[in-house]
Write a structure and sequence with these properties.
The chain has six helices and four strands. By secondary structure, the protein is α+β, with helices and mostly antiparallel strands. The protein has one domain: Ribonuclease H-like superfamily/Ribonuclease H (Nucleotidyltransferase, domain 5, 2-Layer Sandwich), CATH 3.30.420.10. The strands form two sheets. A two-stranded antiparallel sheet has the order 1-2. A two-stranded parallel sheet has the order 3-4. Helix 1 packs parallel to helix 2. It is globular and about 65 Å long. The protein starts with 27 loop residues before the first strand and ends with a helix.
Length: 175
């Protein structure tokens, strides 16, 4: 809930004041999946989910996989890091339940530069949410969803997020 304070403009001689109103422990957790489907007219998309004052453990990540399976009816390969929320029985059960439509692949350890969603988090945190002091988690959640939904249907922006990572862009998107 604490705002990320960045350099800003203000009238000369008037120091900007950024008041924090929320509780320090309040938070919004966000999960996102950047997808591409070269056989579709809409080739790129973004699926997002937020949790208020909670976090994505392996049960919540399994539920997010189910959301992906509903949103994207085609076969998919999910690339994700080796975080604890991406391991365990709930994840294995989801992978089995959705096989052969779903394949899970791990990114190499300590390689956030290969994850195309990481540039999205940087853009959201350091650009869109800097100097933003929400009143409560509801306001923060609303702002996060508004910012991410605004870009979820922008193929050029999503392609730029993919290019900002070191993961090669699939050939189908280059054509």
């Amino acid at each position: 809930m604490a705002p990320l304070v960045r350099r800003t403009w203000s009238p000369r001689g008037q120091r900007p004041v950024l008041e924090q109103r929320g509780k320090q422990r309040d938070k919004v957790s966000v999960a996102a999946a950047l997808w591409w489907a070269p056989w579709r007219r809409k080739q790129l998309g973004l699926v997002i989910e937020t949790l208020l004052n909670d976090y994505f453990n392996n049960h919540r990540s399994s539920a997010f996989l189910e959301t992906l399976m509903r949103e994207i009816p085609d076969r998919m390969v999910v690339l994700w890091d080796g975080g604890s929320m991406h391991k365990g029985d709930p994840i294995r059960e989801a992978a089995e339940r959705f096989r052969p439509r779903l394949t899970l692949e791990k990114l190499p350890p300590y390689a956030p530069m290969l994850n195309p969603v990481e540039p999205l988090w940087s853009w959201l945190k350091y650009s869109r949410l800097s100097n933003f002091a929400p009143f409560d988690t509801q306001e923060l959640n609303h702002r996060i969803l508004r910012e991410l939904r605004a870009v979820s249907d922008d193929p050029e922006f999503l392609k730029a997020m993919w290019h900002a990572s070191d993961l090669p862009l699939p050939r189908a998107l280059l054509l």
